[in-house]
Amino acid sequence: MERSNYVSTTNACKLCKPLGACLAFKGIEGAVPMLHGSQGCATYMRRYIISHFREPMDIASSSLGEKHAVYGGGPNLKQGLRNIMTKYGARLIGVATTCLTETIGDDVPMIVKEFKKEMGESGLHDLPALVTVSTPSYSGTHMEGFHAAVRAVVEQVSSNEDSAHILNLLPGFLSPEDLRYLKEITDDFWYPSVILPDFSMTLDGPALTDCEKIPGGGTPIEDIRRMGGATATFEFGSTLADFNSAGKFLRDRFGVPLHQMGIPIGLRETDVFFDALERLSGTACPEKYVLEKGRLIDSYVDAHKYLFGKRAVVYGEEDLVVGLTSFLSEVGITPVLCATGGKSGHFKTAIERVTEGIAPPAAGPEGSSAVQPPAVYEGMDFQQIEELALQLSPDLLIGHSKGYPLSKKLGIPLIRVGFPIHDRFGAQRILHVGYRGTQSLLDLIVNSILEAHQDDSPVGYAYM
């Protein structure tokens, strides 16, 4: 790829690291996320998250200013913790750092340790769990912040004092609808699970007469404490090989067997998940999911004539793009570009794994209809994605709302998945995973293509 001669990032294909940490903390019962940094960081992240989930999102802040950049933010952090305890009654406070506090060198774990000692000396012993995580934006993406926060919670809260017949399920950053479906699946296998984090209620709750300071729902802290004694851990993430994830901590510290797998999107990746559940539980797959799979296979056949040979640009979080690419390859869509703002170093390998054996090799006999493997790039912004997409002539884009200007420029459909989705309604209820979620995605893609055909046609066919 010939890259333009510029230095700045233009419309990044990622979000900031502490935003991901706040989302993870929001999936814990009685938790309040807190940013140690300026007020603007918390305000920006609250607004960004609210416009996707359309739910209230409180993020506390230590509200540092110019003076604290010189003298340190310790006193503000301690006062902020007191305020949260007094006004919210939080059971857990997740403290994530920002660029400012990392740059000035505040030792947040030490400050929190001092705070605990001071509270103990004052006679206040009923402290919430205080979890700290380092998340400067300049060191990674929102997904790295998300995974780092989940690991911090497990590392600082869990134990193996009570051995439990449970499954630890670490799904990564999925939608609330995805989390509800995963819980339904594990319940149908009659295997108790701890899903961490679980913001299926905290970020998609019912209408209430009175506003709750801390929304109900979330992973119970008591369950998190039991995770070190679980039977096994399932962790979704094809690109987490070098990441110090929560699953690896539970394996290395407590000996909990770890099963890492891709996000279960499409037939193959969903089969991996269900096969693992069958082995763990010793239970055959419930009939309802056998039927879901059968209907999905039938719809693959029905949709093939609309999808075969279509070309797609897929972008977003690394593991979501891998799952989507696996699914697209199954249904006959050719992913021509897979792009992400992350830099795990494992994105290309993961894409190759899920496209191997699906797309024909690039080199073939003369006159053959060989399909080129997708171009795969890490650390991309949307200016770079646009430069490539203009050369590749895609039929559709698949990713979040930040790709809309490119979709409009190319005149092709945008299938909105992932985060953020700010220009459509119901983002928190998009189902991506399992046979049911794959069915929803397939229907959405086929209908988007049919709609584009109708809109582009001078006749406007009523029968497709």
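(the above was protein one; protein two follows)
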Amino acid sequence: MKVLILIFSLLVYSHAVKPYALQFTGVKVEHTYSNEKKENYLVERKIDAKCMNISVSAESFEDKNITNNISHKCKKTVIKTTGIIQPLYINENIKTYSEIEVMNFLYSKTSKNSAEYILVDSRVKSWFDFRTIPSSVNIPFEDLKYDEDFEEDFNKAYKNLGIKVLNKNKYDFTNAKTAVFFCNGPWCPISSKSIKYLSSIGYPENKMIWYRGGMSSWESLSLSVTKSLK
């Protein structure tokens, strides 16, 4: 009997998807746009064939070589703007994820049980509509604080997180979802502000995870993003 159990365990393990392999196999998800339109995406790393033979050397990354010899399909544009470079960790209770862990979160958590897990885009709606990580849900930082002029947005934000609002200053976190938060990049403080604020009102810290790299890191690695909502 023990032998059979061992063989079964080995078969299950051998067919289990290892997180690092998801960048090659992709993750199937469904994304809901802000206009409620739904679309299926395969979240994967997309690298043009022209980029495969670029040598990883100092010469390849010289400005002149990039300008004259590198295909535009192999380049990513980063706009340098104001912001505050964030630390690697918020605190010892809140995990920080890389792209591999985010993909595994989509594969093993949100796509299988959206009632308990959620990927949160903490940016304002215009950024979310421009492009985001497929299957993420837009919960802007501003919507977490009660404003009588935007009460509907406030209630929607907490409903998406699985939190019951008892009144504007009291919450029931019994069914709070495990949430991964992100924003524009390592210099963007919005997602960490969301986490810190939710922690201050009682959201369990072991249910909050931070994707520090955000859209900047995600796109720099040629991972799938949504279409712009026109």
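Reviewer note on protein two: The two ends are 60 Å apart (CA to CA).
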